[in-house]
């Protein structure tokens, strides 16, 4: 043991994970290939291992970011069930998010719910099983500005966000409107419960 290394959890203090590594999506064998193709398309991911019932994929230097498992005997999830609401992936720039929106739209894949949350600008997509995936960018460049927004009256009034028109955002982006203006948090009511569907 390293000299002076704390022996107990209480002595060591907080030890948080270094990063979020991956998620695994379960599906039926009948929809396995469809989900693999959907996530490969959505994330521009490549398989690192694939067989007839499991596929590990990545889009960066992590060994895998998502896995799809086709498991016999699974039951369909009831609507309005408890559980994980969505998984989210961040893009580096608004231009990257715009490009991804356009690439997917050209393939007939459109967001189920576009929300400007304030701290993030987000596009939510539903996979073939109804799992929701968020593609987002951070609105604020500096952490202190993000923290200040979380503590603001605007966020307190509406911590969910405001629905926006992604096609209009894309049009304005190509018209040369500044990224700072396009990312500006929106004022307005939060979406109704129906916007979140009964997945």
Write the CATH architecture name of the largest domain: Roll
Structural domain tally:
2
CATH level-3 fold name of the largest domain: 2,3-Dihydroxybiphenyl 1,2-Dioxygenase, domain 1
Percent helix: 25-40%
What structural class should be given to the helix and strand makeup?
alpha+beta
Beta percentage is 15-25%
Low-confidence stretches are none
The N- to C-terminal Cα distance equals: 50 Å
What composes the largest sheet?
A: 5 strands, mixed
Rg calculated over all Cα atoms: 20 Å
Average residue pLDDT: 93
Shape: globular
Strand order of the largest sheet: 5-8-7-6-9
Care to count the β-strands?
Answer: 9
> What would CATH call the class of the largest domain?
Alpha Beta
* Helix and strand pattern: HEHEEEEHEEEHHEHH
Per DSSP, the total helix count is: 7
Briefly summarize what is shown:
The chain is α+β, with helices and mostly antiparallel strands and 199 residues long.
Describe the secondary structure blueprint for this structure.
Blueprint: H1 9-12, E1 23-27, H2 32-43, E2 46-50, E3 54-58, E4 66-70, E5 86-90, H3 94-106, E6 113-116, E7 120-126, E8 132-138, H4 143-150, H5 153-157, E9 162-163, H6 166-174, H7 179-183
Parallel strand pairs: 1-4, 5-8
Antiparallel strand pairs: 2-3, 3-4, 6-7, 6-9, 7-8
Helix pairs in contact: 3-6
């Amino acid at each position: 043991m390293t000299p002076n290394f704390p022996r107990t959890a209480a002595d060591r203090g907080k030890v948080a994970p270094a990063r979020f590594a991956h998620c695994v999506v379960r599906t039926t064998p009948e929809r396995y290939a469809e989900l693999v193709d959907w996530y490969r398309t959505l994330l521009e991911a490549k398989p690192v291992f694939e067989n007839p019932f499991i596929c590990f994929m990545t889009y960066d230097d992590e060994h895998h970011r998502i896995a799809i498992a086709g498991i016999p005997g699974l039951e369909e999830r009831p609507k309005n069930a408890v559980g994980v609401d969505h998984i989210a992936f961040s893009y580096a720039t608004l231009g990257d998010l715009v490009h991804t929106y356009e690439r997917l739209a050209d393939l007939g894949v459109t967001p189920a719910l576009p929300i400007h949350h304030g701290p993030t600008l987000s596009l939510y997509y539903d996979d073939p099983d109804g799992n929701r995936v968020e593609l987002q960018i951070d609105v604020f460049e500096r952490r202190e500005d993000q923290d200040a927004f979380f503590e603001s009256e605007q966020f307190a009034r509406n911590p969910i966000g405001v629905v926006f028109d992604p096609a209009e955002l894309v049009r304005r982006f190509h018209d040369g409107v500044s990224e700072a203006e396009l990312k500006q948090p929106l004022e307005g009511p939060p979406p109704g419960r129906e916007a979140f569907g009964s997945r």
